Predict the 3D structure of the following.
Amino acid sequence: MTGSARALATAADPGAALRIAEEVVRLAERAGVTEAEALVVSGESALTRFANSEVHQNVASSEVSVSLRVAKGRRVAVSSSGRTDAEGLRALVERAAAIAAYVEELEDWAGLPEPDGVPEAVEAAWSDATAGATPELRADGARAVIAAAEVQGVTAFGSFATDAEAFAVANSKGVRAAERRTTSQLLTVSMGPDHGTGYAEECSVDATAIDAAALGRESAQRARASANPVDIEPGDYPVVLDRYAVVDLLDMLGYLGFSALAVAEDRSFFEAGKQVASPLVTITDDGRDPAGLPVGFDAEGVAKQRLALLDRGVCRDLAFDARTASRAGRHSTGHGLPAPNPYGPFPTNMAMAAGDATTEDLIGGLERGLLVTRFHYTNPVYPKRVVITGMTRDGTFLVEGGRIVGPVRNLRFTMSYLDALAGVEAVSRDRRCLRGLLGGSVVPAVRLSSFSFTGATRAG
């Protein structure tokens, strides 16, 4: 193991992180606060970039973050620091206590979470291979992508990232939680002649489980196939969405709908027992699912619960943190984000259940429609109906008679993702872990009966 790899593994020490969190809580209690909660995240991140089919940069950083939330009655304050020495921790506590003396009271403050046993660390959240990943390992992955691009006569761009961290939470009520986590992500964009572009990505706890050569071939072949795109009239088309587009559907549903705060504020589509999607659509959130990027507990030290968000298209459950749970008379589901957090809880380990179709089956079911690789620059238009606007990117193809005819120019769309999921006709058996807006998601490809495209883009 190289020096940098040893440093990465050593920095991700959950025991050391928990001791810091406990010391911060002790100092805060001595300062006279009513309640205190410390979150410590330490570790090292490394990234190897490649552009114009050349590895051109390797960077690494080792960081620690200490966040303290204190309450004086109903006055709640948060302060954070990157220092872990005695003087730095004392200063952190002094700042938080001083802020708490002046902020307004929170009428609905119900206190920090009570301990409910010790959250069990998820062993599947850690990989020694990722913790020990060297620049050479990441460069080898990049070179495999580049070699695949050269075969197709296109140019490769992208990055290969590895992260190892310790995550620890302690509070004045006795909550104690600590674990170590690793993640890795390889993504690549291929660019070819005549406006051809392609994309591929995969995330994993174990960096050595990512098949860089396969991702390179996927992206490069798509770039080659998407050259010389033609115009197509906007309108409603049956579509096959590749996994890179499906992850955006889950992100937007999680961000806009599966949050207890969004429901409490009447911003969500969610209504328990209501059918909002096809019976082929089941979406869960499970922090212990080894297919994704597992975590055992949230930023409040509460164990992650498995949630059935949509069960065969029917709304079942929501993500709660301590504050929204107290409002609803429930227990937190372990979906609290680091304070201060005005956005409420979100599902961060979503997965859509696999179907039984192959990619060929999905495309073969289109008499005349479109194959979409991924979406780009998506934004909510009408949050309660999850109406989203955006555009296609990196490979949009016309399908006729169940066969790909050729590439078309990227299209703009405005579409309710709820309506899209209501029209799911088939789901692939193959799924992939991708990094989305809210965390790692495990997603299949899907075929939809209709998707609304409202215009064309100028670029290919």
Summary: The chain has eleven helices and 17 strands. The domain at 3-209 is CATH 3.30.2290.10 (PmbA/TldD fold).
